[in-house]
Amino acid sequence: MADRNRLSINQATTRQQHTLAEAIAAYSTQDVPGIGIWRDKLEECGLAEAKRRLDDSGLKVSSLCRGGMFPHPTAGKRQAALDDCRIAIEQAAELDADCLILVAGGLPAGSKDLIGARQMIREGLAAVLPNARAAGVPVAIEPLHPMYAADRCAINTLDQALDLCDALGEGVGVAVDAYHVWWDPKLEAAIARAAGRILGFHVCDWLVPTTDLLLDRGMMGDGVIDLPALHRAVSAAGYVGPIEVEIFSTANWWRRPGDEVIATCKERFQACV
Amino acid sequence: MADRNRLSINQATTRQQHTLAEAIAAYSTQDVPGIGIWRDKLEECGLAEAKRRLDDSGLKVSSLCRGGMFPHPTAGKRQAALDDCRIAIEQAAELDADCLILVAGGLPAGSKDLIGARQMIREGLAAVLPNARAAGVPVAIEPLHPMYAADRCAINTLDQALDLCDALGEGVGVAVDAYHVWWDPKLEAAIARAAGRILGFHVCDWLVPTTDLLLDRGMMGDGVIDLPALHRAVSAAGYVGPIEVEIFSTANWWRRPGDEVIATCKERFQACV
Fold first, then answer.
1. Could you read off the pLDDT of A223-255 as tens digits, one per residue?
2. pLDDT of res. A216
3. Do the beta carbons of residue B207 and residue A150 sit within 8 Å?
4. Are B213 and A147 within 8 A, CB to CB?
5. Cα separation of B75 and B122, whole Å?
6. Helix A75-94 and helix A47-57, axial crossing angle in degrees, nearest 10
């Protein structure tokens, strides 16, 4: 049974229902202690206004989503991605977020060169890490499910993310998202290897069948992921931080009243994680 | 440029257009040298009739799809899967197929225990391998993309399949399907490791965006997989057998005239593989 003091809800879970201001109000009203924030929602609200509302509510920011998307065909676009990531680092520092979620990016437009894309990711991370270190913002590489390798993220296993961490040194770790890693035959060893470098733990569930590659994630308990086993593994690796619920669900949870979604997250968090 | 003498078309590519008898006629009319056969189509045609038509056409059978689906909650259902796989082995022997494709199966109904499912797969394979060896039918474990881990196949990387081969000994190898393995950061090393054990090489393409997890595969050249690089890697590992085109495509290729699909497969095989 997960400790409710560690619950955070990523605002993507109610992104169709709530602005950031509304999410802050709705989560804190139901005594959810943490929130994961998306930058589009943050920028719509304004950073100063968001900070004021977060301070008033007492909500802790478990993560800011996201920096990254490094691979591009031109140097100009790669530079723009670095500039954008540096802004994300500043925003994460201002919000006192536990980490900046790094979604690395997939193939550059028009390319089939996955190895080249991965090299661009490594170079991009190396370029922004000094800024992250200076700002005191831990960067959490989030390996994404292999079905996103082409268009979102060419870092697709925890081991691959840890190899990057090994190469890059201080200030970078990993976010372990159940949805992305649950299938990995080397998962248990990879989580043990990640000890001391786990910056976030995200939960939802894998539905059978899954009807959309991106927007059909399930509520904890409605799918097939053994979340308690994953929770134990992450805990055994020393992670004691927030556990973030992040559900993209056009056909179900995004259509329900926000308060019902939050209440269900709280209930399932304790029952199924 | 792929050698057209190595082309095989898996009949799933025109499964909405053709019975097995029709596929044999249509492929051989266009001088396609090989065919991959599915058991539902085979049983509809009848084994003796299929053999007669294959002999008349000169088409070689590159694979029979499929045996496997080993994990089940009850011993009775697991035994039924073994019995069925032994029938598949006999059919593959009768057809002189180059291999029997083994799709391992996912989680048993109601289970979240992926490690247990993988153990059932190993036990199932160990149980049927003596039959396959006796029949002279090579068994090709086909790792499926991680997005199928829950419902189709809990063997999700080439390395994982090769670990199974190492454990099981003679008579078993792997099928390398571009669609399933292209994303793997350890792919190049895994293909080299597979040298001497590659029993099949399947091609199609990964579309961006992909609109369905199962039935939205692309024609070679329409997606993002670097097929020539994969072809070189498989060749460097010593594979000289048939290269099978296998495309499941409800929205596109399954709606076109069969002859057009075959002609396109031939053209793209030479231009894009």
1. 999 999 999 999 999 999 999 999 999 999 999
2. 97
3. no
4. yes
5. 15
6. 30
B161 interfacial to chain A (CB closer than 8 Å): no
Q: Which helix (H) or strand (E) holds B28?
A: helix B20-29
What kind and span of H or E run contains A270?
Answer: helix A258-272
Compare all CA atoms of chain A with the CA of B149 and give the residue at the minimum distance. Answer: A183
Structure confidence by residue, pLDDT tens digits, A45-91: 999 999 999 999 999 999 999 999 999 999 999 999 999 999 999 99
Using the Cβ of B113 and the Cβ atoms of chain A, whether some distance falls under 8 Å is answered with yes
What are the tens digits of pLDDT across the range A166-204? Answer: 999 999 999 999 999 999 999 999 999 999 999 999 999
Determine how many CB atoms are found less than 10 A away from the CB of residue B261. Answer: 25
Which tokens sit at B104? 């391992």
Residues B150, A185: C-beta atoms closer than 8 Å: no
CATH number of the domain that A166 lies in? 3.20.20.150
Q: Best mutation site among A141, A145, A147 for testing chain B: the one with the most B CBs within 10 Å?
A: A147
> In angstroms, rounded to a whole number, what is the distance separating the alpha carbons of residues B134 and B222?
42
| Structure-block tokens of residue A262 | 């939050």
Count how many Cα atoms sit within 13 Å of the Cα of residue B255 in the half-sphere of its side chain: 6
Contact B112, A225 (CB under 8 A): yes
- Domains contained in chain B, number: 1
The domain in which residue A217 lies consists of 4-272
- Whether the model clears a pTM of 0.95, i.e. scores above it, the answer is yes
pLDDT mean by block of 10 residues, chain B; 273 residues: 94 98 98 98 98 98 98 98 98 98 97 98 98 98 98 98 97 98 98 98 98 97 98 98 98 98 98 98
